[in-house]
Amino acid sequence: MVNHDKKRTLIIETATKRFAHFGIAKTTMTEIAKDLSLSKALLYYYFPDKISLFAAVLENIAKKMIAKIQVGLQGIDNCEDAVLYLIDMRLAFAMKYYNLFDPSLNSMTEMPAELARAIQLAADLEIKIIADIFNKANKNEEMNIEEPTHIAEIFLNAMIGMRFCVLKDKKAMFIPTKEEFDEISQMQKKLAVIFLNGLRHQKSE
């Protein structure tokens, strides 16, 4: 089992490098197998197709992002500073792995189940870390947020919604340009300040 897990991790890490450099459309399972000095049959044993491997890569990146954010948040007590740090880190990871946001994904008529699960996992992890920020604010008596997890979900959905306001090509709902990513991030920061000020106002009432 240990060797199986190590091999799976190695495949994901190798695939991440190739996807991040060439994008999903220009990457083949044959190339990944060659990078690993594996037979295609063995690679397909771990991942039945490229989409399932791509989903595993997204899941792994999301977990790495959350782990890095958690470390950074340890030294931040102010709720607003913590949320703005989270937004900055989201942008940093989006830029680092920008080629993973392959335009070919826009041509999908229906999102594969594996990809949908990976995206949902990333959202769930982000909701948890935002809820942790809100819980810490409650503990420090900076805020008095009822149902922190529910409020965190609303906030994340509002941040995600910023994408639709910024995208120049409304058909490309999944893939902003690098410039649009930056613009989205700036709008998310403004939203965060307004959102948190509203929560503080509730506390003062």
Automatic annotation (TrEMBL):
Signal peptide (from-to): none
Keywords: DNA-binding, Transcription, Transcription regulation
DNA-binding annotation, residue ranges on this chain: 28-47
SUPFAM superfamilies: Homeodomain-like (SSF46689)
Domain HTH tetR-type: 5-65
Cross-referenced InterPro entries: DNA-bd_HTH_TetR-type_CS, Homeodomain-like_sf, HTH-type_TetR-like_transc_reg, HTH_TetR
Name of the molecule in the record: HTH tetR-type domain-containing protein
